[in-house]
Amino acid sequence: MNGKGGYVIGQVVMVVVSLVAAFLIAVYVPGDPKTKLVLTIGYALLALTFLFGMAILVEIIRGNIDLGSILNEQGKGASMSRFQLLIFTFVIALGLFLLTVENGKEFPHIPADVLTLLGISASTYAVSKGIQAGSQQGKNGGDGGGGDTDGAKK
Fold it and tell me: How far apart are CA 87 and CA 125, in angstroms?
């Protein structure tokens, strides 16, 4: 059996486990059908996400996924814009997770300021990639966007 077969079997097992968990919730949770459906879908997606996350962690531990260059740019050192986006995303995700655990039943309200700051962080990364693409074009024979190259002659 080749490596692909193991992945397919693992993915099938993950889907079956999440469907069984969803079925158990649908059968044994008291309440009206709409509440059961919402809980079933929610827990099935949660179980599936957890299982896919575990599969990724197993592949990282086995060494099949290399995280050594997650912050590196092509042929360069670490990228500050990637690091900023990574850290800021984790801080917001952890904060929302802790607020959700504290509230218990409902997802917390996310202020527009937090979303704005996350957007600024993501746009910083996008702008840095644009600058890098522009500098690569200049090195590869592009005119650098200057247009007219004959200087002051007019």
Answer: 12
Q: Which residues contact 19 (CB under 8 A, 6 or more apart)?
A: 44
CA 49 to chain centroid: 12
- Say how far apart CA 56 and CA 119 lie, in whole Å: 27
CA distance 109 to 101: 13
Helices (H) and strands (E) in the chain, counts: 4, 0
pLDDT in tens, 65-124: 777 766 676 666 777 777 888 888 888 888 888 888 887 777 788 889 988 988 888 888
The domain locations on the chain are 1-67, 68-142
Residue 9 CA: distances (Å) to CA of 18, 59, 80, 93: 14, 15, 39, 31
Closest CA to 44 of 62, 61, 24: 24
C-alpha–C-alpha distance, residues 14 and 7, integer Å = 11
Claim: this prediction has a pTM higher than 0.70: no
